[in-house]
């Protein structure tokens, strides 16, 4: 049977028939994924709260081509916002082949004076929105999905959902200001990972594969503070000697959307250059703080 199968790169990694919805798609990791799809011929819908950023990103990506990018203004802080996004997408397309749940937020605060709103906002956006958008898009994900050509849901968590130490602590050259930590962020991303596995179990019989990506340090609005203040330290504690690049994230998203991953579901994919495996031990050099 192997000799009758087309295993060419063009067969395994063809994206021109894809229709992808990317939440949080105007900036950061979402924009990286959107560019990867557009440059490989897919139709992409990006969603986020700020229309000005959506317009800018769409214009940039459409200039790149050959795929197309359009946008939907959406606030996914509650169920109503999630359902509104799904309704708008359904009015534009007959099916969705890839859903990238990338909307998210972080919150830094003092451990002994951490605000309740810092928990509520992150659990709503980082966990609840993934659930309701996936449920709302299921009818579109089901259309045309087969065992050999399933639809995909890709959730974006974080290495913070795996690590038990708060590597974001600002006093150690992390991603928040000194004395602060992101104590609700890690638990929300751990919940995202667990939800992914539950979704994978439920949706696999319907030919919808669900996987989760756990990025390490990448350039984004969420990491701007740490990258501006502590880049030398962050790089020193990366075994690869660098932080993540658009090709690292965009390439992984393409793989998880391709024929090459059609039999994968419930997987947790770490893309952190080995930082978690080594306990954030430097490949070379010391902290410069």
From TrEMBL:
Keywords: NADP, Oxidoreductase. SUPFAM superfamilies: NAD(P)-binding Rossmann-fold domains. It holds the Pfam family adh_short_C2. One of its GO terms (molecular function) is oxidoreductase activity. Belongs to the short-chain dehydrogenases/reductases (SDR) family. PANTHER family: 7-ALPHA-HYDROXYSTEROID DEHYDROGENASE (PTHR43618), 7ALPHA-HYDROXYSTEROID DEHYDROGENASE (PTHR43618:SF8). This is 3-oxoacyl-reductase. The lineage of its organism: Eukaryota, Fungi, Dikarya, Ascomycota, Pezizomycotina.
């Amino acid at each position: 049977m192997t000799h009758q199968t087309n295993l060419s790169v063009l067969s395994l990694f063809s994206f021109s028939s894809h229709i992808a919805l990317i939440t949080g798609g105007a900036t950061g990791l979402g924009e990286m994924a959107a560019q990867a799809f557009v440059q490989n011929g897919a139709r992409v819908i990006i969603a986020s709260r700020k229309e000005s950023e959506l317009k800018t990103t769409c214009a940039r990506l459409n200039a790149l081509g050959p795929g197309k990018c359009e946008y939907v203004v959406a606030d996914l802080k509650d169920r109503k916002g999630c359902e509104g996004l799904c309704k708008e997408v359904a009015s534009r397309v007959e099916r969705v082949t890839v859903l990238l749940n990338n909307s998210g937020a972080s919150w830094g605060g003092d451990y002994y004076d951490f605000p309740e709103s810092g928990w509520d906002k992150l659990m709503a956006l980082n966990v609840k929105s993934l659930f309701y958008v996936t449920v709302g898009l299921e009818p579109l994900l089901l259309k045309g999905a087969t065992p050999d050509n399933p639809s995909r849901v890709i959730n974006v968590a974080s290495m913070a959902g795996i690590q038990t130490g708060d590597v974001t602590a600002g006093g150690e050259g992390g991603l928040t200001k000194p004395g602060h930590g992101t104590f609700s962020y890690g638990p929300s991303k751990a919940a995202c990972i667990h939800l992914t596995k539950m979704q994978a179990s439920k949706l696999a019989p319907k030919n919808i594969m669900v996987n989760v990506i756990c990025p390490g340090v990448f350039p984004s609005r969420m990491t701007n503070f740490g990258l501006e203040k502590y880049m030398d330290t962050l790089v020193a504690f990366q075994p690869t000697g660098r932080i993540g690049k658009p090709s690292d994230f965009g390439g992984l998203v393409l793989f998880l959307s391709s024929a090459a991953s059609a039999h994968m579901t419930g997987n947790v994919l770490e893309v952190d250059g080995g930082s978690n495996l080594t306990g954030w031990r430097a490949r070379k050099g010391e902290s410069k703080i």
